[in-house]
Here is the input.
Amino acid sequence: MKRVVPRVTGRSLHSDTDESPGWGPAGHRPAGVAGPALRAVGLTRVYGEDESLVWAVDGVDLDVPAGQTLAVTGPSGCGKSTLLQLLGGLDRPTEGEVWLGGRRIDHLGERALARLRRRSVGFVFQAYHLMHELSAAQNVELPALLAGASPRAARRRAAELLQQVGLAGRARHLPSELSGGQRQRVAVARALANDPLVVLADEPTGNLDSAATRDILRLFDELRAAGQTLVMVTHDERVAATADRVVSMRDGTLADDTRLDGDGRGTRHGHGGGTGLGALLRWED
Amino acid sequence: MQDVVLALLSKEPSHGYDLRQRLVTALGPLGETLNAGQIYVTLTRLEKAGLVVQEREDAPMRGPRRKVYALTAAGQERVAAWMAESAGPRADVAEFHLKLVAAAESGLADPLALVDARRRELMRSLAEAQHAALAHDTDSEAGLLLEGIALRLQADLRWLEACERAWSARAPRGEGKGNG
Amino acid sequence: MGHLLLTWRLIRHDVRRRPAEALVFLIAVALAIASLTLGLTARNALATAYLKTRAATAGPDITAITTDTDPSGLAGRLADTPGVAAQADPIFAFDTTIRAHGRAAHSSVEGRENAPSAVDRPLVTSGTWVRPGGAVVERGFAQALGVRVGDRVTIGKRGYPVVGIAISAATPVYPWSDWAQGPGPSDYGGRIWLTTADAHAAAGHTPGVHLIHLKLTDPADPHRWSATVFTDDRRGDSWVNTHNWQTVLETDAVMIRNMQPALVVGGWLLAAAALVTLAALATARNARDNRRAALLKAVGAGPGTVTAVLLAPHLLLTFLSTALGLTAGTLAAPHLIDPSAGLLDTAGPPDSVTVFAAVFLAVVVAVTGALGPAVRAARGSTVQTLADPAHTLTRHPRLNAVTAYLPTALLLGVRLLARRPGRAVLAAAGTAATTVMVTALLTFHAELDATPAVRRFGPLEVRTDQTGQVLLAVTFALVALSTLNTVLLSWGTAVQARRALTITRTLGATPGQIVAAHCVTQLLPALPGVAAGIPVGLGLYWFFATPITPPGSWLLTAALAILLTIAVLTALPAWVHTREPAGRVLNAEAA
Here is the structure.
């Protein structure tokens, strides 16, 4: 028997945005981006054939306003990684639309998608996916070089980003000479190399211990403060809790949508217990 | 306890022995300490408060006679209010568990909706705890406390996942388009 | 016993699961061995064929040729000469141009009796022996002319029906069998038998010669006999020439003189190509072997057992393919060696040198291809091999710094290449081997083109045709093997670089850039391969044959064709790879 969750329609998922017009393009993202940074409409991805069809993503409607950090949670196999790949143009949907920065991308060819990823999307993966044979700095340079930046500009940008993620001293190290947390920070720096419209992170802390996880989360916090749109997929509630908004996925559909930032609080199930850490501390009565 | 007993009565009038049986089933080993006397004390108090009323007395073939209680209108209101109110930051596992059991039993609320609401609540608390924790050094006293709070909230959230799985398997509903 | 069972199970599993891999291995090695065997046994096979034919036709140890119109004097003196064991009656022969099927050819026409002669009894292989009005044509000559029993040949002004085809070891095979030309330089020509009466009639006033075939008591050294015993006083006043059987054999061997280096060098080049194939296969096997080694060690097998178990399938396959190659080479030798059909076909067992060379080659191939990985896998720590079958990577900071200035495709390609220098060497070696052979083939054709028309016409073609066919066959085999190598290598690169390229794709590299990067990884090492292959091919050709250089445009076209083929073969798997959305590949990688 398939799990039936309280039906949250596409409309209601967008409602948060609708209710709080303070969100959206008014954020810190580049001007000229009208509407959400990312939008999915009826997004569906089916794998397999005939009998063994799997709806990895099944009719997902989602708007991510510019400047928002969104966490997608759910048990493994719920389709959250596939959703992220669809949003980033790494995979093409069976049905539905993906809009990135006001441009529809789901029907684009591989080449156009590649160009788009290059400019507008930064990926961070659980397994880091750094190029083994390139040093930290060279890994960070690569997207800029692919995008046609001059080697000098790419190098400067890489140095800047490594500084930002606190790895300026490790620029010449190979990934194999870095700890997991450091590798992931290099990956974050690489994702930012072309100043992307959105950063998509797939279980960014999945392979990290708690200290390294803190480093990455702090880094994400800084990105958030700088107005970077960020979508991360995670099964770790503590990681998800650092986002502005959490959507949970079940069996390929969005089951729940919770605003965790100030703007959204109280628009839903407000409780009498008060808000803020004070409420937590009153446990100690 | 009063709220739980009221909720269990909202489905149909019942007597103390039955109520105890139901609670023991829901609580498992935790309910072993619950004796029939405690139930009767609670029922008496509720009756005094005008929330329940003794409907009749059953005379079974063997054993003592049993008083069958039913909810009053005030009792109904109290149960509805309890169901609607959030568990609050202090709610512990057993309490919320009984609320889910009572909700399912009485049909007054959807356990899954309760789980969702609870999760949002906990998620918000965790968000605050996490933001605070990130701002503090883990080695500091405050950081240590925040770490503990965050871990407990995380544990509660994980338990909610289990609740969601169990209740959705137990109470399939025909609503929605059939997947989800 | 246990080890044997285990090894056997693994081999069976391998062959059943990957029959193509085993087959490719088998074919690659067998091809190399067969070519080498052919080259090495050519000489031997020829000698065997000659000796066999000689025995079957009572071939002479030495033949005396005189222009004296009356040979009886010489015959009488020879009869008195010591050391002569047997002597045939003098045979009248004259040199003429015969016609058959509209073609003209030089030939000696011999007059023979119906009764078998004491020495040189041509073996009739089809039809009958000479009869009045009927001609018998030597088999090699008949084949060159395209003449069969029942056809007609024109000798002088008269046509004769061909009543039989025969072989003889008295003279060298066609086109060196015309011994009726008398003093002076001789021309290429064939051999035809008529009855003595017909021969004299056909000759008319044409001066002829008389051949006296002899068997000596010491057949081993006819040269000494003609120098010391058959002295001038015994030869008489007329012109007398002698040909001994060793000269005949030597002349026959001219036939294969150009072919042999093509086969031997080709054999080694094929071996080199086979080595590349095996190495390319080994990369595919490595991961599996590593895992296998680790599992074996985890259950308590020692390094020796592990090495043995990993090597055994290789050795078994090598042994099989060596046997196959040797057999194929030996069986093919007589057909390749004597297509002029002047000698009896023989398939003798290969001599020890050939067997040794073949086994040596096979061992080199097997050891280079398999021993390294097997020993490495056996030696490495269990946990390490279980956990990480990946190779250690070398860093190339300077290279990477330099490539930053290259276009993206080149940048990716060079960095990928730097990742697997071994592959680059393999690709270069494979390409070089092919280029060597293609160059040799081109040079051969250039020489053919440069040969004056006079020499090209006629019997020379027999020889050049054969060499050309052998060159073509070896080249074809090499090209086939190299194609396979390129596919294997580029597929291997595609598989190994999958992760890196997919990452690059997530960073925004277009499919075009990915395909181009792949091509760069194969083309860059192929360039030096081609560059080295052309001079080496020329050098080898010059060393064994004529120093002649084919036109530059030919070489350029060949080089470009080779590079283009490689590019296409490489682009295909890469293109297939980019068809899949990057996300899916990443998922597969993670799993």
